[in-house]
Amino acid sequence: MMKKVYLIATVVAIITGIATYLFASQLQKNSTIKDTPNSPIVVAKVNIPKNTIVTADMVELKQLPTLSVTPGAYSNPTDVVGKVARQDIMLGEQLVPLRFVQPGRKDNNAALSNQLKEGEYAYTLSVDVQTGVAGYISEGDYVDVMYLKTSPDGKTTADIVFQNIFVIRTSGFSENYSAESAGTPILEYSNVTLVLTLEQCRQMALYQSTGMVRLLLKPVTAAAQQPGETTTAPETTTAATP
User: Fold this and answer.
1) Would you say the pTM of this structure is higher than 0.70?
2) CATH number at residue 88
3) Are 36 and 63 in contact (CB under 8 A)?
4) Pair 69, 179 in one domain
5) Which residues pair with 125 in a beta bridge?
6) Chain segment 188-220, per-residue pLDDT in tens
7) Residue 236 sits in which domain range?
8) Looking at the 3D structure of the chain, how many domains does it have?
């Protein structure tokens, strides 16, 4: 009988010890969490697909343990609202500046459409040594556009039809992708992509279909004074065709 009493007492003691240990562990865990410093961090409230403009309902501010915070993470939702996601953003992900781009900002690491402002369009011209300034045009340069046309009587006119047009890309997508992956510059190109208005795109297409278009590289000091200006009274040179 006494053995049975001792056995029961032993089992009760073991159970009590385990319960006490678990209770103490939980208290220690709660105390540790409570005592850990937190920081307000902006996280994704939903999955945000690539090239999506972030709205206020897509993000939220959460208190996270400071030790778990990603360096540079946003701490104010207004800092990220209105920006565009460079890549897919997962639900709950801490939001950092490198994952976003400001619309209209010229940034080669962002999709081309993200770098265009409202009312801007990317327009690509095929160029050669003569029409593309022998490969000396670079991204970020400004160019004037010359339009050459030969009339039925054999006279050729040369008009400066656009001035201070921004060059947003040289060469094509595959060449740019390969160059960026290899970390090497683009040395040759057969295409130049310009930033135009919709009306300028329409006019450029007409110029290409009725004559020849040449690009004129601007000096750095004169390039960005009036970007995108359309010449209202073109400077025209006329020459007789031999």
Assistant:
1) no
2) 3.90.1210.10
3) no
4) no
5) 192
6) 788 999 999 999 999 999 999 999 999 999 987
7) 116-240
8) 2
